[in-house]
């Protein structure tokens, strides 16, 4: 286990298309998944994509805290994930990213998706995600195609440093712990 260095915006590893994982059950992939989990917990954050730790492979991890969705979503590993949009309706929400430390911005994303992926045993699985859950998955999977959340923003005036934007009476403000 190891805490990995997180690449920040501008690093070329974040800008390219990551390669599919060919051997999901390899010890290297399992080790990377464990290291990513430890790195995400240390950051702290709620999601992390392999390119963010300098591995240009199609693997992401995430969870959704109970504070963000009823019951939350347990820690999930997605290998070679694919997203199908089930409802094009866009929903706005605040996002942060461990590759843009300290910053948040308002991003509109489709609110309802289906996710298909492989797990660490190479087994295919699929599920639907809505709302904040759908947002987290889309944010992480964007990392696999070289897309950072500011590239999805229609109005960059909402991009800023969370410390400057936080107001005690504003519960819509994202905490840094929500960074992906
Ligand atoms: Ni991110």
Textual characterization of the structure:
With 180 residues, the protein is an alpha+beta fold. It has helices at 27-42, 131-143, 162-165, and strands at 47-49, 59-64, 73-96, 103-118, 124-130, 160-161. The protein has one domain (12-179): Peptide Deformylase (Alpha-Beta Complex). 18% of the residues lie in helices and 32% in strands. Strands 1, 2, 3, 4, 5 and 6 form a 6-stranded antiparallel β-sheet that branches. A hairpin with an 8-residue loop joins strand 2 (59-64) and strand 3. The radius of gyration is 15 Å and the shape is globular.
Task: Tag the structure with descriptive keywords.
binds nickel (II) ion, 3 helices, 6-stranded antiparallel sheet, alpha+beta, Peptide Deformylase, 6 strands, 180 residues, single chain
Short description:
It is built from three helices and six strands, in the order H-E-E-E-E-E-H-E-H.
Distance between the termini: 20 Å
CATH class: Alpha Beta
Mean pLDDT: 93
Q: Specify the CATH architecture.
A: Alpha-Beta Complex
The number of helical elements comes to 3
Query: What general form does the structure show?
Result: globular
Kindly provide the radius of gyration, computed on alpha-carbon positions and rounded to a whole number of angstroms. Answer: 15 Å
The CATH homologous superfamily is named Peptide deformylase
List the uncertain runs.
Answer: none
What amount of the residues lies in strands? 25-35%
Distinct compounds present: nickel (II) ion
Structural class, judged by helices and strands?
alpha+beta
Q: Could you name the CATH topology? A: Peptide Deformylase
Helix content: 10-25%
Number of domains: 1
Order of helical and strand elements = HEEEEEHEH
Number of strands: 6
What composes the largest sheet?
Answer: 6 strands, antiparallel
């Amino acid at each position: 286990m190891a805490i990995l260095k997180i690449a920040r915006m501008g690093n070329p590893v974040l800008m390219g298309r990551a390669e599919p994982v060919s051997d999901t059950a390899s010890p290297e992939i399992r080790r990377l998944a464990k290291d990513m989990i430890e790195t995400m917990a240390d950051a702290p954050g709620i999601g992390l994509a392999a390119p963010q730790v300098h591995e240009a492979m199609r693997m992401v991890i995430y969870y959704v805290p109970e504070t963000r969705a009823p019951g939350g979503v347990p820690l999930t590993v997605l290998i070679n994930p694919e997203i199908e949009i089930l409802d094009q309706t866009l929903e706005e929400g605040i996002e942060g990213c461990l590759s843009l430390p300290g910053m948040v911005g308002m991003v509109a994303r489709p609110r309802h998706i289906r996710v298909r992926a492989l797990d660490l045993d190479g087994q295919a699985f699929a599920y639907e995600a809505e709302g904040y859950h759908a947002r987290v998955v889309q944010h992480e999977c964007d990392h696999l195609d070289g897309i950072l959340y500011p590239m999805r923003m229609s109005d960059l005036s909402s991009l800023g440093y969370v410390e400057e934007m936080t107001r005690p009476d504003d519960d819509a403000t994202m905490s840094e712990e929500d960074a992906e």
